[in-house]
Design the sequence.
């Protein structure tokens, strides 16, 4: 039986397959350009979005890192007791640093902060308690550390800007969710357009597909050239998008940093190679999925 | 080789195309399916290569239970069959050689094997000298011969022909039928659906006559019209 050699890949087969892909790809140049353009726009938007999200996340993290826990001590705590507390808190794994700020220093800090706004000389005695300033290693732990310190003896109140921390964490979560939704919509739109392009080329070749089915071609075999076509559309679109994004980043980003009033942004780095790989994967995936679906409609008998 | 048992087919629109049809076709048989248009000849053929599935009954082709065949197993079934149509179904932008090779390429055949088999098939149908031409440059008869070469290139045990001479003049019709006769001599089982009286009467093969989705007669060496053969024998 000649079936004996069917699984062996030979040059003739490869050439035949590549020929089919090339023929299909060049048959409808206008539509192909539309598909590639759409993918390029979508992937560029996706890339911009991912970049901004990354920057904001990093900047937000930076802000969170600056958050400190103020631990106000009860009145009349001795130096030895303060040292005890410092050691206990500093021993916790989650804690990065503990500083003691005596009420005198606290008043000085307050005075310098209020300079020009309020006349601090009206204060006849120091109203501030002694304070420990605690920094967490991970901003996520701030709330837990604060709660734990509250249970220690000789603590009056613990304050860590609960509001701000919660807001920032919430904002991060919302941004994440909105981001996923926006990305999903972008990908869906690009997918629909590629699917339509592929459907046109499939339609142009429907006779051929019918004949392939009649002579016993498997669905996978019939699909393969169209899948490659979709993949090619997706990858070409992604390359254009990546080129545009890289150019835009080089030309615009430094100027934008100067113009924006957020110094935290400058230090927030983005893993560019990873982002580029992600965009190529996204482009290729839309192409493959879209073409898989549109050929599938013609294969159902 | 082919076996239909109590096969019925009702289309989604309620039209009953086949009504409890039973038919046995042995290895190496040459069978004509005759009857008016719309009597179920094409439906019966399409069921054999599982373009459609029966609503009732069993269809067995070359040992394969076709009526319950899974979608993914259909390609394997069709590789055992050669199928020829009235409209040839050649790809106009491929040469004759490529059209024939195509049938092997889609089955994943080895290139060496393709290079060996395609000329043989073209030789058999007498088109070796026109292998580089495109279907549009060939006459109807030549196109049908190319289609037959494509149907044969995978060495099927069964050749199914749906009105193979419907678009051909008498001269080409005769040539195509002679070609099918020669292919049958090599042991290939052949089923031809036709309403061409001349073809059936000249070949004198088994004739299965259909009417309204039923088989009404099945003669070993029949004529197109029932009773005509006896009449000729009587008068001759």
Sequence:
């Amino acid at each position: 039986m000649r079936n004996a050699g069917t699984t062996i890949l030979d040059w003739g087969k490869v050439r035949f397959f590549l020929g089919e892909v090339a023929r299909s790809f060049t048959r409808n140049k206008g539509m192909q350009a539309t598909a590639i353009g759409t993918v390029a726009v979508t992937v560029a938007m996706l890339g911009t979005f991912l970049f901004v999200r990354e920057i904001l996340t990093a900047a937000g993290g930076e802000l969170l890192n600056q958050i400190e826990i103020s631990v106000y001590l009860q009145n009349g705590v001795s130096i030895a007791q303060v040292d005890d507390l410092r050691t206990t808190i500093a021993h916790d794994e989650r804690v990065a640093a503990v500083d003691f700020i005596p009420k005198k220093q606290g008043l000085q800090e307050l005075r310098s902060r209020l300079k020009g706004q309020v006349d601090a000389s009206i204060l006849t005695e120091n109203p501030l308690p002694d304070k420990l300033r605690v920094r967490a290693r991970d901003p996520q732990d701030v709330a837990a550390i604060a709660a734990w310190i509250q249970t220690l003896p000789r603590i009056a109140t613990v304050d860590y800007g609960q509001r701000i921390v919660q807001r920032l964490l919430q904002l991060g979560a919302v941004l994440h969710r909105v981001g996923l939704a926006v990305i999903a919509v972008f990908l869906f739109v690009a997918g629909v357009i590629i699917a339509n392009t592929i459907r046109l080329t499939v339609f142009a070749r429907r006779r051929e597909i019918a004949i392939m089915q009649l002579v016993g071609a498997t669905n996978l075999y019939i699909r393969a050239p169209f899948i490659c076509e979709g993949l090619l559309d997706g990858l070409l679109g992604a390359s254009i998008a990546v080129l545009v994004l890289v150019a835009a980043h080089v030309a615009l980003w430094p100027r934008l940093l100067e113009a924006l009033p957020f110094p935290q942004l400058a230090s927030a780095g983005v893993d560019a190679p990873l982002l580029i790989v992600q965009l190529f994967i996204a482009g290729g995936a839309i192409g493959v999925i879209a073409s898989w679906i549109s050929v599938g409609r013609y294969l159902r008998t | 080789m082919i076996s239909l048992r109590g096969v019925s087919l009702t289309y989604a629109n309620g039209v009953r195309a086949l009504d409890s049809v039973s038919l046995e076709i042995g290895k190496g048989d040459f069978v004509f399916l005759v009857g008016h248009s719309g009597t179920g000849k094409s439906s019966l053929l399409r069921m054999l290569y599982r373009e459609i599935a029966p609503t009732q009954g069993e269809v067995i082709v070359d040992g394969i239970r076709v009526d319950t065949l899974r979608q993914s197993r259909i390609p394997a079934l069709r590789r055992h069959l050669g199928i020829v149509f009235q409209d040839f179904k050649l790809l106009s932008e491929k040469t004759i050689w490529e059209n024939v090779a195509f049938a092997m390429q889609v089955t994943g055949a080895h290139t060496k094997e393709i290079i060996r088999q395609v000329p043989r098939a073209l030789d058999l149908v007498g088109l070796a000298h026109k292998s580089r031409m495109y279907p549009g440059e060939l006459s109807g008869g030549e196109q049908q011969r190319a289609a037959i070469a494509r149907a044969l290139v995978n060495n099927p045990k069964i050749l199914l022909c749906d009105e193979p001479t419907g678009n051909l003049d008498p001269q080409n019709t005769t040539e195509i039928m002679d070609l099918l006769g020669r292919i049958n001599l090599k042991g290939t089982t052949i089923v031809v659906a036709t309403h061409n009286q001349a073809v059936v009467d000249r070949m004198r093969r088994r004739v299965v006559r259909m009417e309204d989705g039923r088989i009404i007669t099945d003669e070993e060496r029949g004529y197109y019209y029932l009773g005509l053969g006896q009449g000729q024998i009587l008068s001759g």
